[in-house]
Amino acid sequence: MSELNKEVVDLVWGKPLGGGVSTSIFRRWSQGYVFSEHEQTALKQFEGGPCAVIAPVQAFLLKNILFNRESSNWRQMSEEEQKMALCSTLTEILESACASPSTGFCLVTWAKGQSPHTSMLSKTQTQSQTQGMPKPESSQSPQEQQPTALAAEDLGFEQFHSVLHKRTVLSVSDLREEVLSLYHSWRGCCGVLLFLYSVILTKGIENIRNEIQDPTEPLIDPIHGHGSQSLVNLLVTGHAVSNVWDGDRECSGMKLHGIHKQASVGFLTLMESLRYCKVGTFLKSPKFPIWILGSETHLSVFFTKEMSLVGPESASEQARRVFQSFDPEDNGFIPESLLEDVMKALDLVSEPEYVSLVKSKLDPENLGIILLGPFLLEFFPDQDSGIPDSFPIYHYNGLKQSNHKERTAGDRHQLPRDPIWMERKLKMDGWILNKATLLYRFSSLI
Fold it and tell me: Is 154 in a helix, a strand, or coil?
């Protein structure tokens, strides 16, 4: 990978002023995918930073466990089932990121004989034991040993990039086999970074740069170590766009890219309640009722098995989305001059005489604006969302210090449909879930 190292490093880490990424940030990102001993379907996060990769993988992992697995007890998994579920999830994300099947899929792993279990430990075994690292059992091969949670102190940023190897496979079936064969690499030291680099090279460095709004913005902040929205979007949708609204928007002659189709798992953020951003329907209403939750500093996963929360757009949901596309500032209204365009976009009758009649009905005081609520009521009245009165929800937070007794586990709540009740009982203060006109506030657990 020597010829690609600089391009990959610049894209992922940028060009920090000190000339390199700090030791502490690299160490925080140097963990593998490790399952919680308390919650067999949950992935652990040891320090802040890699949630930008771990949370999307956790979301897709839950999707595959909840909706693709035959067993009804989704919280119980054997080690073999964990292996198959994780590798299937990583394969799915790589497939989504692949820009063109003809170019194949790239997998980044350790060069032969250069994994931390071999070259590094053999070279500095005495020093590592002094630092409290267990010596590998002589009777065990490196692949049979317990996965390493964090990178050994001796594996620095430069050394890590000097011992990487890239392999290419040309078919999905070969990809599945290769990902499965690398299971111990994903779970071991630097497994998160190995997978991230695999996604980047599968997508293509130039393709990612073309999608990111600011090509100079790294995927991982070299100062604070957090992942960018482009990185989250790349893993969730296969596209490294920087925004979370639906479709593209024009701003001062510049085209800003957003989300172009319904995602398999969703994304919701506390920043929307603070009006820093607008999350579109494609992420708020994904195909499966699983959402990555964004707070100011962390990502976690919120999910339920209640499929009535998601699914294909209803006519009223489509109308809301189209109406809001003509209202980019989210004012809740549009100029009456745009009413005909909205009606045409929704394939409603748009003859001038009829549009004029609708204008007079929706704007009886001649204010020159059309409100969203009366518009939906006029064309899509009495649409029931079909959501039950109550349903169980779960929340996974991989950081053990954020959980009760530092146990990574699924917090379960019986969530009623009345948002006022929820505010009183759970003291919630951020917009999280949207289905039709139903809004839940759920941020105290982030």
Answer: coil
Q: Is-contact 28 225, C-beta < 8 A?
A: yes
Give the active site residue among 51, 87, 98, 106: 51
Q: How far apart are the first and last CA of the chain?
A: 38
CA distances from 389 to 164, 288, 426 (A): 52, 19, 17
Residue 240 carries which side chain, given as an amino acid letter? Answer: A
pLDDT, mean of each 10-residue run, the chain (446 residues): 78 77 90 92 93 97 91 88 97 93 90 65 38 39 43 72 91 95 94 97 94 90 91 96 89 85 92 82 91 91 88 80 85 94 94 94 94 93 69 86 57 44 31 33 35
The question of whether 298 is a catalytic residue gets the answer: yes
CA-nearest of 76, 19, 27 to 47 is 27
Q: Which two tokens stand for residue 277?
A: 């951003």
113-137 in b/e form (b: 16+ CB < 10 A) is ebbbbebbbeebeeebeeeebeebe
Structure tokens at 55: 């949370």
CA–CA gap between residue 212 and residue 240 (Å, rounded): 6
Q: Where are the alpha helices (DSSP H) in 71-112?
A: 79-97
294: closest CA among 228, 217, 245, 248? 228
- The one-character DSSP state at 133 is P
Nearest CA-CA partner of 192 in 302, 46, 64: 46
Distance separating alpha carbons of residues 338 and 333, to the nearest angstrom: 10
Task: With beta carbons less than 8 A apart as the criterion, state whether 183 and 83 touch.
Answer: yes
Tracing tokens 């490093």 back to the chain, one arrives at 9
The verdict on whether 184 is a catalytic residue reads no
pLDDT in tens, 174-208: 999 999 999 999 999 999 999 999 999 999 999 99
H or E element in which residue 185 lies? helix 183-187
Active-site pick, 277, 298, 395, 413: 298
Polymer length in residues for the chain: 446
- Residue 227, SS3 per DSSP: strand
Q: Tell me how far apart the alpha carbons of residues 74 and 29 are, in angstroms, rounded to a whole number.
A: 29
Contact 316, 380 (CB under 8 A): yes
Query: The pTM is what?
Result: 0.77
CA distance 47 to 28: 6
For residues 213 and 215, what is the distance between their CA atoms, to the nearest angstrom?
6
Element (H, E) at 250: strand 249-251
> Tokens standing for 37?
């001993």
Under 8 Å between Cβ of 257 and 211? yes
